[in-house]
Design goal:
53% of the residues lie in helices and 17% in strands. With 217 residues, the protein is an alpha/beta fold. The chain has an 8-stranded parallel β-barrel with strand order 1-2-3-4-5-6-7-8, surrounded by 7 helices. Strand 1, helix 1 and strand 2 form a beta-alpha-beta unit. The longest helix is centred in the C-terminal third of the chain and has 17 residues. It is globular, with a radius of gyration of 19 Å. The termini are far apart. The site of SN-glycerol-3-phosphate (G3P) has 11 residues, from helix 7.
């Protein structure tokens, strides 16, 4: 399973990259605003900066909600760097724009997906990635992981090439459960990746090894 980090924070992206396990980055307008990145030029430059840190795919989201606007913004984003994946919302014009970009060989991530039907449309339109938001479904007492499982089954039934990018991952258990289900990618905060390191028996075992080494040296 690929690990993407879901942030626009350059320090956190560097930390995940330095760990050696990072496969890409996802961002969205909210995450950009959280880092204080505003204004079209600054946002575009920030995407370039992110691409310089990581080697994998970097999702950059359009703001337009009409077809022409999405095409214009998507082309501008795709031209920024070869690693850029155009992120489009799951609305009618987003599906049309997905088909346009996928026909041109430009990678697309269809975002804000909350149902199997939406995921099916994204795959039919040639999306490289589909982003079901599992944490936000959990937030409204709906089983987010069940959606990932259902999309997995449907995609496998027809051998769709679209990769399931489990998004809105919030914690380590989300990561582990996504892996068990067979999600192709997960994107979450740095804490959901770093948290996988932790086990009290690893810490106590290492402390014991070091203490025993000191006794004999
Ligand atoms: O990748 C989608 C993500 O940014 C949404 O996460 O935690 O805001 O639901 P969250």
């Amino acid at each position: 399973m690929k690990f993407f980090i879901d942030t626009a924070n350059l320090d956190q992206i560097k930390e995940a990259q330095d760990l050696g396990v990072l496969d890409g980055v996802t961002t969205n307008p909210s995450l950009m605003a959280k880092e204080g990145i505003t204004g079209a030029e600054n946002i575009l430059q920030h995407y370039r900066d992110i691409c310089e840190i990581v080697e994998g795919d970097v999702s950059a989201e359009v703001i337009a909600t009409d077809y022409e606007g999405m095409i214009q913004q998507g082309e501008e984003l795709a031209a920024l760097h070869p690693q850029i994946v155009v992120k489009l919302p799951m609305i009618s014009d987003g599906v049309k724009a997905c088909k346009y970009f996928s026909d041109k060989g430009i990678k697309v991530n269809v975002t804000l997906v909350f149902s199997v039907g939406q995921a099916l449309l994204a795959a039919k339109a040639g999306a490289t990635y589909v982003s079901p938001f599992l944490g936000r479904l959990d937030d409204i007492s709906t089983d987010g992981l069940n959606l990932i499982q259902e999309i997995r089954n449907v995609y496998d039934n027809y051998s769709f090439g679209t990769q399931i990018l489990s998004a809105s991952v919030r914690n380590t258990m989300h990561v582990i459960n996504c892996a068990k289900i067979g999600s192709d990618v997960m994107t979450g905060p740095l804490s959901s990746i770093i948290g996988l390191l932790k086990h009290p028996l690893t810490e106590s075992g290492l402390a014991q090894f070091l203490a025993d080494y000191k006794k004999g040296n």
